[in-house]
């Protein structure tokens, strides 16, 4: 059954309905779902698991406080650029935003983000960035705890580097801790991730969680949202 609008738009409509009718969000979501021909919102979501976001605004509308988003792609397809675009939009929306990178230097970051928006002020008080070799879940939590608020975006570049040093906890433990932190603080984590080289780009298929490169064991079910970039198409789940 084709929806009258993308899922993220239907969610926005539910929020408006909640305010106008003074009902709970869950009741509003169910009413929207019934108007689309589904008995409940959960049933609608189970039938409509993907959409193709075209702008950073649409991606932010796809995200909710407490979410862990994974952005995956093969090298050179723009996963870090997409994360930075989301951060820029987050800042335009007035949200506190953070960028932690084990891959970029400050110069790399400054070049990329000002290339996306040449008017952007790197001293913007809504943005904090960090390029320390010590970046881990404990480090990120300690650095953001006094500044993060509901809806803040914390981007991490990138997933596979978090536990490459032996003095850091296993990546499973780190992601579990950040998931708990996201729920506690009602913030949103955005993890940039590599796709395994075994993914065959010649076949007519889109990458998914099963294609994420995992040097060390990790339950990918900890990520409740994902975006994959492939052949100039962005698919969100």
Summarize the structure.
Helices cover 37% and strands 16% of the residues. It is an alpha/beta fold.
Overview of the structural elements:
- With 237 residues, this protein is α/β, with parallel strands linked by helices.
- Helices cover 37% and strands 16% of the residues.
- The longest helix is centred in the first third of the chain and has 15 residues, at 7-21.
- The mean pLDDT is 89.
- With strands numbered from the N-terminus, the spatial order across the biggest sheet is 3-2-4-5-1-6-7
The biggest beta sheet is recorded as:
7 strands, mixed
* Helix content, binned percent: 25-40%
Low-confidence stretches at least 5 residues in length (pLDDT < 50)? Answer: none
Anisotropy-based shape: globular
| SSE class | alpha/beta
CATH class of the largest domain: Alpha Beta
Beta-strand percent range: 15-25%
Rg over alpha carbons: 18 Å
Summarize the helices and strands and which ones pair or pack:
Blueprint: H1 7-21, H2 25-35, H3 41-47, H4 56-62, E1 68-73, H5 79-92, E2 97-101, H6 106-116, E3 127-130, H7 137-144, E4 153-157, H8 171-185, E5 188-194, E6 225-230, E7 233-236
Helix pairs in contact: 1-2, 2-3, 4-5
Which labels suit this protein?
single chain, about 240 residues, alpha/beta, Rossmann fold
């Amino acid at each position: 059954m084709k929806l009258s609008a993308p899922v993220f738009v239907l969610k926005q409509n539910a929020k408006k309905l909640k305010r106008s009718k003074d009902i709970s969000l869950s009741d509003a979501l169910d009413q929207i779902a019934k108007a689309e021909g589904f008995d409940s919102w959960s049933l609608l979501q189970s039938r409509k698991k993907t959409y193709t976001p075209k702008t950073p605004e649409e991606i932010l509308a796809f995200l909710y406080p407490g979410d862990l988003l994974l952005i995956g792609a093969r090298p050179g397809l723009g996963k870090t650029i997409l994360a930075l675009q989301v951060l820029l939009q987050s800042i335009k929306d007035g949200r506190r935003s953070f960028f932690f990178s084990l891959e970029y230097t400050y110069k790399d970051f400054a070049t990329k983000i000002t290339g996306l928006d040449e008017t952007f002020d790197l001293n913007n008080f809504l943005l904090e960035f960090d390029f320390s070799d010590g970046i881990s879940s404990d480090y990120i939590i300690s650095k953001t705890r006094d500044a993060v608020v509901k809806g803040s975006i914390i981007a991490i570049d990138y997933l596979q580097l978090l536990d490459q040093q032996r003095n850091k906890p296993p990546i499973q433990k780190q992601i579990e801790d950040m998931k708990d932190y996201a729920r506690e603080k009602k913030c949103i984590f955005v993890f940039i991730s590599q796709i395994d080289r075994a993914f065959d780009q010649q076949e007519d298929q889109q990458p998914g969680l099963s294609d994420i490169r995992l040097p060390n064991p990790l339950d990918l079910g900890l990520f409740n949202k994902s975006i994959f970039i492939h052949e100039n198409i962005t698919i969100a789940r």
